[in-house]
Design a protein that fits this description.
Blueprint (H helix, E strand, L loop, with lengths): L3 H13 L3 H17 L3 H15 L1 H30 L4 H14 L8 H24 L22 H17 L5 H18 L4 H21 L2 H7 L11
């Protein structure tokens, strides 16, 4: 316990020089570290899982919205074709589409709400962990296995490769059918993860790996029809071939 006091003051000094969201996450990681006695790598992983669990209601709401929009797409295409056939002007088209969105309780910008929440959290967590790795000396002995020093890059490239593999697996296993372009873009991004992250400290991957594992598990659970029915998530119907 005595050995933890220097780390607490170090984290407080780092957090004092950080923006509020970043500082709050740094204090959270430090609280987990001090209260549980876990090493830094495990404290980061546990704090990551906590934040991801807290986001579940937002993620479920986001899934409901995107499912509604996917179900709405055939109606939109049919309506747009009908409007073109009758030569409807731009103002009337927008009014018709707006009415269709309102009828189904969504809007073209509704999916952005989830990104506006999850995006800042992702960035804040990244900066929080990186700043701790750069300024807290005990991070040098805060790892385990081959990554004992969390302040240096992984010279074996295991953590960057594992992060890319988990991201790719999540895309392949959890993406909806019909999103071919999105899937291919995600595959390219998965490949680029490795060279772009080789120089990052190992502490960052103590956040990314658990986060990707959570995404993979969450996606697999939400793919089950019975889970979607329980949560009230719209399920697309497959029309029989003509």
């Amino acid at each position: 316990i005595v050995n933890d006091f220097p780390a607490v003051s170090e984290v407080a000094a780092v957090a004092a020089d950080s923006f509020f969201p970043v500082a709050a996450l740094q204090y959270l990681i430090d609280y987990v570290h001090v209260s549980t006695g876990l090493d830094w790598w495990a404290s980061i992983a546990l704090a990551t899982l906590f934040i991801r669990v807290v986001q579940i209601p937002v993620m479920i709401h986001q899934l409901k919205v995107t499912s509604k929009i996917n179900l709405l797409r055939p109606h939109m295409e049919k309506l747009q074709q009908e409007m073109e056939n009758v030569g409807m002007d731009h103002v009337e088209r927008q009014a018709k589409l707006k009415a269709l969105y309102k009828e189904h309780g969504v809007s073209p910008f509704t999916p952005l709400k989830g990104i506006l929440i999850s995006g800042p959290i992702f960035c804040s967590f990244f900066f929080a962990v990186r700043k701790l790795a750069e300024n807290v000396p005990s991070f040098k002995q805060g790892g385990t296995l081959w990554f004992t020093d969390l302040t240096t890059p992984d010279s074996l490239y295991i953590l960057p490769l594992l992060t890319a593999l988990l991201f790719w697996s999540t895309v392949e296993l959890n993406s909806e059918e019909g999103n071919g372009a999105v899937k291919w873009m995600s595959r390219v991004f998965a490949v680029l993860i490795v060279p772009f992250t080789l120089s990052l400290p190992k502490a960052i991957f103590c956040y990314w790996v658990p986060s990707n594992l959570f995404s993979l598990a969450y996606g697999r659970v939400l793919k089950r029809v019975e889970v979607k029915k329980f949560l009230g998530i719209p399920i697309p119907t497959v029309d029989p071939p003509s």
